[in-house]
Amino acid sequence: MTADATYAFANENDGGVARFGALESIFDATTTRHMAACGVAPGWTCLEIGGGGGSIVEWLASRVGPSGRVVATDLNTRCLERLGLSNVAVLRHDIASEPVPEDTFDLVHARLVLMHVANAAAALGHMIRALKPGGWVVVEEFEVTPLAMTSLSSAELSNVNTTLALRHAMEQAGMDLRFGRRLPDFLEAHGLVDIEAEGRLCLWRGRSAGTDLLRANYLAFRSHILETLLVTPQEFDRDLRNLDDPRFAISSPVMWTVAGRRPGRA
To answer: Less Cβ crowding at N or C end of the chain, within 10 Å?
Structure first.
């Protein structure tokens, strides 16, 4: 199977290890809090789409126990295959173009997957149809507002043009940087109930997981950023160094975590 061409990080040689670690550090606590609120328990069958580095897969596997099952998918399953958990099945799968078994899962989760998908509504439909009656879907996506990703530090540490160029490059790659805000409407349109939504915006300081994530994105899009001519190679390198300066501070995107339940009982 070939990777979805719209996935901007599909060809990273390191498998996105630096990005995975930063995402886990920043967002896992919120993700698992929302999953726990859905009642994930021993014996549940769960689907993790875009499992990445595998931290959420491990959490789910520990919650569902030996009587439960977790199916973990990604375009690149290298990190997931290293987990070696007896109650986890790892599949190479593209939610954008390939359906999943219907009426099968108690919980389906995806984080920062749909923003890369050309037909995100169809992919979300696959996820919802995969739920058992009474099952839960938890979806997490960014909304990059005009405030988000804006430097709040002094002028010499601003990184403004590099960050603007990064936004442009991501949009050119097909990423929907405002998808998160629309998630509640999508879940309601698919007939889900008990919909809950939380949007979180944080301050990312130099030498933090947030700036580690920003660095990984800068490097992944370096050639595209320079093609915008908003920054020179020297300015790009300077802005990378700024991310290690404790005086640096930048507003994160809003991470929307949205949960909804399929009507009925399992």
So the answer is: N
